[in-house]
Amino acid sequence: MTIANTSVPVTVLPSPHHGGLGITRSLGRLGIPVFNIDASPWCPSFFSRYCAGRFLHDLDTATAEHSVEWLLDLGRRLGARSILVPTTDAAALLAAANAAALREWFILPDQSSGLVHSLSSKKEMYGLARRHRVPVPVTVFPQTRAELLAAPDRVGLPLIVKGIQGYVWNRESRTKALVHTMARFLELCKTVPDAAVPGLLVQEYIPGSEDKAWMFNGYFDATSECRAAFTGRKIRQCPVYTGAASLAICENNGAVETSAKSFMKAVEYRGIVDIDFRYDSRDGKYKILDVNSRIGSTFRLFVSPTGMDVARALYLDLTGQDVPVSALAAGRKWMVEDLDLVAALGYWREGALNLREWLKSLRGVEEFGFFAFDDPLPLLLMLRADGRELLRLTRAPAERVPPFELKPTLKEENGVAPAEKHACL
Hints:
This protein is of the alpha/beta class. The chain has three domains: 10-108, Rossmann fold, CATH 3.40.50; 138-205, Dna Ligase, domain 1 (2-Layer Sandwich), CATH 3.30.1490.20; 210-371 and 383-388, ATP-grasp fold, B domain (D-amino Acid Aminotransferase, Chain A, domain 1), CATH 3.30.470. The chain has 13 helices and 16 strands. The strands form three sheets. Strands 14-13-10-11-12-15-16 form a seven-stranded mixed β-sheet. The protein has a five-stranded parallel β-sheet with strand order 3-2-1-4-5. The longest helix has 19 residues, at 377-395. The relative contact order is 0.16.
């Protein structure tokens, strides 16, 4: 596809792993200047041929005030207003809470800060979903250790334990755990400090294989009308059963699309949204698991036959250009190379995947998270990062990090907590 006006630049905040790289390539290939921000000088996006400029800033350690001032200074240095694209919950919350100040140098959807906060909090999001009659899994929000220990009586086994706001957990810790037995649940509870209990939720695990895990990607304009909508299904997840998609396929799902559109319209959402659903065969309902009020790292799975994706829809709308109607490229597959290798090993250990099945599942992959003929360097950066992680794991003792550990590095009044960073391995 081509875009008539590509003069307005884009700033990606931050640019982690394959998600930031996908935005850089998607928009950069159209001739749009894309500036990347990240905490690591080895960020793969920095080495893309489509990166127009790279800047170091760590949202995890900076206060909200410092980050806003840093962004405004960056805008002045660039000398032009650019479209700001947050890629993490912390960045989305920062942008929404400080939109009035940031608009001096940045263009962004007119989002409600309160709505973005509510969607980022699983507890508040579940309340919103229930009020708007969107099905959700049975979930308990314990306030005391006694309520935490009693949660399996209400949700049953297996169950999932999550952080209500994943971004407040230690970046080296897991933000969710799938638990199959009561003994394992009790063992997990021992690692949770009393102060952390109100920050958890305990949720039923909806039974079934990965074909029950569905995704919705959409873009909603200033009147909360959906201008681009895509649905797809996870084939593998990293970590297994509970993580992000490492291999996925585009498939039409009218029920998921209708549910997502009506929910976002009802809450008057604006901008890009990434929503996870799971199909419950026990009652025939698609139940909402997470709502990400930002672009998702899997967005390049969802590309129309004409080349439209949600990043391009956002750009067209915010620059006053028409957003053409987009069809779904049913059957399109997308994969993140390193994550899928780790995922495949995990499913193999579970007895759910063999070598032949893995190779067969790779047929028809149309796009990779890192590999691209026209942009080869980011793949080398992925390999470098994975090599360093493997070296760290081989050198480290068998000490395990508790799955839920608070990291109080930022004050609550800053309004933004550290962003969760997903390790490759």
